[in-house]
Amino acid sequence: MPVAPPSLVDILRADATDDILGDAFGGDQNPTDDEATAAAAEDDVVPEGACVECKDQQAQLYCEQCQEDFCEVCAGMLHRTGGRKRHVLKPLCIGDCEQLQAQAQAEGEEKEEEKGDDIDEEMGDETVGDAAGEVGAMGVSFSAQSGRVETAGGTSFAEWITKRARYIPLRLTLRERKFLRLLEAGLKVSEYTDKIDVLMYGNKTKRIVAQIKELCAILSGLVLASDYKVGQTLFEDRQFEDNEEFYQRIFEIGRRHKIMNPEKMRNEYGKMMFLLQDSQSDDVKTMLNFSLVSPIKTVYSVLESLGVLYILDDEMVA
User: Fold this and answer.
1) In this structure, is the dihedral angle defined by the CA atoms of residues 226, 228, 229 and 230, taken in order, positive or negative?
2) How far is CA 244 from CA 190, 220, 229, 293, 306, in A?
3) Residue 37 backbone zone (phi > 0: left; psi -120 to 50: alpha; other: beta)
4) Could you tell me where the DSSP H helices lie in 227-281?
């Protein structure tokens, strides 16, 4: 027969040491303090060769101050701030260190050889030892004995650097960096992609032209605000097409800066390129009456415009 649960009167009359509820409901299900301590001790046991923090990853680093082994993730997390940033972490060698280092070095050399082969295939005519005698970037070396740059394949250094100078962007001047800041500010407040890349009724070409002129007006206003005399000279009683050269210079500076600094202008550059691509369509160019695109200013183009290309042939350059 099932045991009837104790009544409230029995519970109140019972002595404090009596376990009435335990007898009625099958005893105390909670573990004792000793059992809990033993379970916690089992959880604290770190497998051999494992990280002391996560206990499930292979230990890769040893901290001399903590005197404990960590995996790479836990070591970085625990030693990123405070006094632990100054702790010395040393890599752990699992097994034969020399064998592992030799294996890693051999794998690195194989990857470098494969990478070199891929580069030679991609460069095509520009590879070292090419039938046409042209020298690629890998065919140039510095001679410590002569103190000069030497080329392979029979091509002179002057010919090599002249060819390369066509694709080397010119570094921005201080004034151009000021224009770059104006361009970045104008692109940040521009809503070009929001207004163009949406499904709307109406003429898309007219919207593109309106947004391009709006951005040009923003740039004009920023130039006028930063230097009133220059802005007045550029924009007083003049239309957008009258300042075509100025706008081309502004956008060329942005493109040149991005080529030399790929990590910069992550958001603004995409918006600028969409705008420039749209401005090159025939319908937009007809309505806009001016172009925003000009060639990138390179070392070769600047030297050519100044008539001093012979500098690249000078022996002192090498």
Assistant:
1) positive
2) 19, 12, 19, 9, 23
3) alpha
4) 228-235, 244-260, 268-279
Cβ 216 vs Cβ 251: under 8 Å: no
Residue tagged 């207004």 (tokens): 195
Taking only the tens place, the pLDDT of each residue in 43-100 is 667 788 888 888 888 888 999 999 899 888 888 888 888 888 889 988 886 555 556 5
Q: Cα separation of 186 and 220, whole Å?
A: 10
303 near 311, Cβ under 8 Å?
Answer: yes
Residue with tokens 């000279």: 233
CA distances for 274 relative to 110, 230, 305, angstroms: 41, 29, 30
| Model confidence pTM above 0.70 | no
Angle at 235 between CA 230 and CA 240, to 5 degrees: 135
Give CA–CA dist 218/220, Å, rounded. 5
Instruction: Please give the structure tokens belonging to residue 231.
Output: 């802005």
H-type alpha helices, the chain: 8-13, 20-25, 33-44, 72-78, 97-123, 157-165, 174-189, 192-196, 204-226, 228-235, 244-260, 268-279, 282-288, 299-306
| pLDDT single digits (tens) 103-131 | 667 776 676 666 655 555 544 444 333 33
